[in-house]
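User: Okay, second chain of the day. Same drill as before: sequence in, structure tokens out.
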Amino acid sequence: MSEWANLRGLNISSGWSPRGGQTSAAYYSNSTPEGSSSASAVAAALGLSMAAIGTETFGSILEPAELNNVIGPKPSRGLIVNDVTLPTSARQDVIGTLTRTVSDAAHLLTTMAGRSENDERTWNIPFAVPDFTTYCKDTDLSGITIGVPRSTFTVDSTSPIMISFESALDTLHRAGAKVVDNADFPDVEEFMKLNQQVRGIVRASEFKRDIVRYLQTLEANPNHIHSAEDIIRFTKSFAGEEHPDRDIRKFLWTQAEGIYVNTEKYREMVSQGQFYGGEVGILGAMEKHGLDLLTVPSSMGIANDLALFIGSDLQGFLG
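Assistant: Same drill. Structure tokens below.
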């Protein structure tokens, strides 16, 4: 795992932690494994484990799955209990799987999904958890309409990712699905203008609250860490953290921003995200084009950003 889901600083490499050192991607020497759940993806890709578990707030499963050529579905928040997960944002954090095949991912999801007394969001699951492996036995997608919101992509059309993505679209079409190209979000340009600010303020505010709640549950806390301020203090003082060579600028920004979840600014940012993800974003596009689902080239765009705000699971193509 990358330390703190890349929330700590700007020059923290993906796949590094003071406990385990640097992880490299599976197929090229000294290449980045990407995402916080990087070692899990590399272990599954190399066959060091049949499957692995990852966590994601934004891209921490999707990105290492993409770069290491494994299956990394990001479940909807609340499908799997995450009450013991060290949080970035308890509202957005999810637990997912990293495997070499879709059927392995389905087996794990069937076992892991379900309600828990320790996570109230799991009680919002609107159905009895099925055996997801039954959906791996049929390739007929007749009657399914899939939208491609190209205006949300931020990757060159000639890149290997896009070449693979176009091939996947062709496979879906040949399986019987109706593919609606350019099923774009109505106000995508407006969201892109405020995208980074909204994401940063919302996550920083939730981190300050959720990390305190998590630390209060620990049975042992030998370093007496009880808040984000204590985390900063420890990071500066513990040699294994390699500070200041590996910086803490994101941590410091989290503190300096001074916005908390009980403020009007936080509520305004959450509301903006839900608006741009909902009626003028994902939900608006799905209603306009009669879509059953959307597909994007993994994390290469803002569609996953919007999905976070409205609690959707937007499945990207994962190599």
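The first strand starts at residue 16 and ends at 17.

User: Thanks, on to the next one.
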